[in-house]
Amino acid sequence: MIKLTRQELWRSLRALTLLDMILAPKDGRHHPVMDASCKDGQNRFVLDSSSGRLWVIFTDDAVVIRGCGRSSEDTEDPSALLFKDMPEGLLTLFDEAQRRETTFCMWQTEGVWHQNKTESDGGEAELMGYIFTSADRMQAWAEEHYGRKLDDKIMKKLFDKAMLTADEMKALSPECRPREVMAEFFSRTVSGR
Questions:
Q1: What is the DSSP letter of 124?
Q2: Taking the domains of the chain in order of start, what are their residue ranges?
């Protein structure tokens, strides 16, 4: 189960979202891994990888992480167990089809994480590996994924603050357009959950 606080998780996902916007411009050469949006007072981060999809939803007083691993066995529907004891207000975030396709789920209320496990990990280990707990882990993943060496100091700042200057963005990716990146970043995420 995840060990990050709400703020640490928020910062980690914003850092990965910004990094993805800098290194995977909308030019068709790279597949973005992260998508972020703000809707109905909720911040949503969606990670799409070859392993499956991971949704992280921040509400005013809770966080929900829902995953759909692509390699999980399609045996019986585990959703009744996965969502057992989830507060009703959080259950309403998902319709029946979304609950059925879920292969793992966890939520945080009042600073405490909750999760009901099934026999299969449902792709959890691989998908949760995208939630980075250190700048070094995020940098190692990014250098492999994007196929380029990244500056240690800039990556540390990005992980710690989820923010970079225009010059730092250009140092990571010379083809980056910092004003466009920041306009999109701020339109899709709100600061300070």
A1: H
A2: 6-188
